[in-house]
Fold:
Amino acid sequence: MLALLAGLLFSLASGASWRGVRGQESPPGSRFVCTSLPLDAAPSGCPLPPVPMQGGALPSEEELKATVLQLRETILQQKETIGNQRETIRELTSKLSRCESSPGPDGKPGTGGWRKELGKGKDTMGDLPRDPTQVIDQLSRTMQTLKDRLENLEHQLRSNVSYAALPNELREMLQRRLGDLERQLLSKVAELEDEKSLLHNETSAHRQKTETALSALLERVSELEKGSSAFKSPDEFKVGLPLRTNYLYGKIKKTLPELYAFTVCLWLRSSASPGIGTPFSYAVPGQANEIVLIEWGNNPIELLINDKVAQLPLFISDGKWHHICITWTTRDGMWEAFQDGEKLGTGENLAPWHPIKPGGVLILGQEQDTVGGRFDATQAFVGEMSQFNIWDRVLKAEDIMNIANCSTNMPGNIIPWVDNNVDVFGGATKWPVETCEERLLDL
Structure:
């Protein structure tokens, strides 16, 4: 077409005329042959084809030239549009090829294209929702968007006036390419739908399994927090505090009355380092350190009464069961420390003439900075304990020896070690424990 218009322009410029093949008349359907003539030759009866004009007048030579130039400009614009559309098709084909060749989450080729939003080149996986169903839905929508764009492009090509002027080979190539792209997109969408179904099934099964495990765990925690009556004897149990945290602890339900003397005994086992932490603490309003037994960092074991400190010659961080007893009296602040029935130390002037205040909170495994709370993980006890008893008097050394070697069962008259008097929290456990004689095997 461009060559034909160029020939027409050349003929007009050189004085060419039209000669009818069938004579002067130009009936409908006739063809015209354009023959170049010299400038001084007569046109020999070859009239120009009629050009409709307003008012019936024939156009001048300048008007015909302007018309030809306008047509040529239109053709050049259509050619440029075709070039741009070819460029778009090549770009989409390249992106689809990268989509097919990129490795997917399973390491296989052909699925890595999920990680790019086609047509934009933007990595969107970081913005996708974590639910697999929503991920597949969004990828399906991206594929559908690309398909719609290709259909729009095909429609534009078909409706464009220059599409009919394309060579047959080019039109057939475009048709084949668009058909291939459409089939590939449909295949990808089908694969995504299949994987969406598989992911949904796997997610549902995993969710059900997780919920079942959590339900069983919650039931077990509830049982432990409420206490279990399955122990052979109400005092045959131990409290386990396996981690150094600020939320695992036990709590004694009963509180202390006002005391002028006491004896605290317990079995414990810990191999924590540095320091076993705080086996027990008693806090009252206005004094968080009313009674505290603690081994913190590389310091020796300390007994605090009314925030006054005495260092005890006890050594219990070897991972074995040990029986510990501590006595104290307000008169002169006298104290004694026993390990496995043997007195290892004594002293005086520990909070003398200070009675132990009543109505406080007794915690196992944590040091209290406020009454019943504000624990510090670095001061937490790690290990197991049992038979925590408190008396309101100083026990004789003979009684302490008999308790330690299991020849006497003497529960505390103020705080006895019984199941329904001990609650555990934060993952601390209550488990049955063997008899006192069994624990003596560690000694």
In short: The helical segments are 2-13, 61-101, 132-159, 168-226, 397-404, 436-439. The radius of gyration is 49 Å. The longest strand covers residues 261-269. Confidence is low (pLDDT under 50) at residues 1-26, 42-49, 51-56, 110-130.
